[in-house]
Specification:
Strand order of the largest sheet: 2-1-5-6-7-4-3
Structural class: alpha+beta
Radius of gyration: 18 Å
Largest sheet: 7 strands, antiparallel
Number of strands: 7
Helix content: 25-40%
Distance between the termini: 22 Å
Shape: globular
Order of helices and strands: HEEEEHEEHHEH
Length: 163
């Protein structure tokens, strides 16, 4: 399967068009847990926001080894999948970082259609309990099932065509 990977350009395109990822971490008992998040990809990192009340915030402080998964499901980006082993940093009390991320986030997810919508969403989200979590990739694995399908079809053996 290692022959059917995404190029750096294809990966960047996926991060540009997809705004949802799955963030994975472990709880104190060692169990893996995952939750979908909208994200911003900037400076080679995934950025999400949430509130300090979420258990994942303390879990990621205690155990920053984490994972972010992005797929092309629902977007025009082929059949792409990316898994990034990440190291998380929880940015607490950094109002400048919150105010940097929120406008990018609102624009990315379409919640800032006009000035009034933007103002309302900023008022709702820009609270003292808001934290930004930065996920720095330390290793990345990609897969493009479209490339696999093309290779199988080119080989003359295509069971998919029979379904």
């Amino acid at each position: 399967m290692s022959a059917f990977t995404l190029s750096l350009e294809e990966r960047e395109r996926l991060f540009e068009v997809q705004n949802e990822c799955t963030v994975c971490w472990t709880n104190r008992d060692g169990w893996p847990i995952a939750m979908p998040h909208s994200f911003v990809w900037d400076s080679g990192r995934f950025w999400v926001h949430t509130t300090t009340k979420r258990k994942r915030v303390q879990a990621l402080r205690d155990r920053p080894e984490s994972c972010v998964v992005v797929t092309s499901l629902g977007v025009e980006a082929g059949a792409a999948m990316v898994t990034a082993k990440t190291r998380a940093v929880v940015h607490d009390g950094d109002r400048d970082r919150v105010r940097w991320l929120l406008p990018l986030f609102l624009k990315r997810v379409g919640m800032a259609a006009d000035d009034e919508a933007y103002r309302q969403q900023m008022q709702l989200l820009d609270t003292p309990a808001r934290v930004v979590i930065e996920f720095e990739p330390v290793d990345v694995f990609t897969y493009d099932s479209k490339k696999l399908r093309e290779a199988v079809t080119a080989s003359g053996f295509d069971n998919w065509a029979k379904e």
